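dumping this here so i dont lose it
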């Protein structure tokens, strides 16, 4: 699997691989408001994960997820903080975000 030094490099690399939808977590689902897409945990897989830790600032801790719908028609990215700045998320979504099927 590829490695990236920054969140921006990871996003650019994933976009070049077709992960072009920007997702956000909304408690129990992923959404892309711009394209009116909603994916529930049973609708998608996490195919890649890149974790970044700030060298000098713990506030710079983020995870970049590559997300693909189970039918393969939708590919996108989710950037999420972790630790104290993580979004409020359902237990089902937390479980989904920690299991990666490759």
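and the seq i came up w/
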């Amino acid at each position: 699997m590829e490695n990236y030094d920054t969140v921006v490099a990871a996003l650019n690399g994933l976009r070049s691989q077709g992960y072009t939808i920007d997702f956000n977590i909304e408690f129990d689902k992923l959404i892309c408001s711009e394209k009116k897409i909603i994916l529930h945990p049973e609708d998608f897989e996490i195919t890649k994960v890149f974790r970044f830790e700030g060298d000098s600032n713990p506030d710079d801790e983020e995870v970049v997820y590559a997300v693909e719908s189970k039918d393969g028609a939708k590919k996108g990215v989710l950037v999420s903080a972790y630790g104290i700045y993580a979004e409020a998320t359902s237990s089902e979504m937390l479980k989904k975000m920690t299991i990666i099927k490759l």
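The chain has one domain: 7-98.
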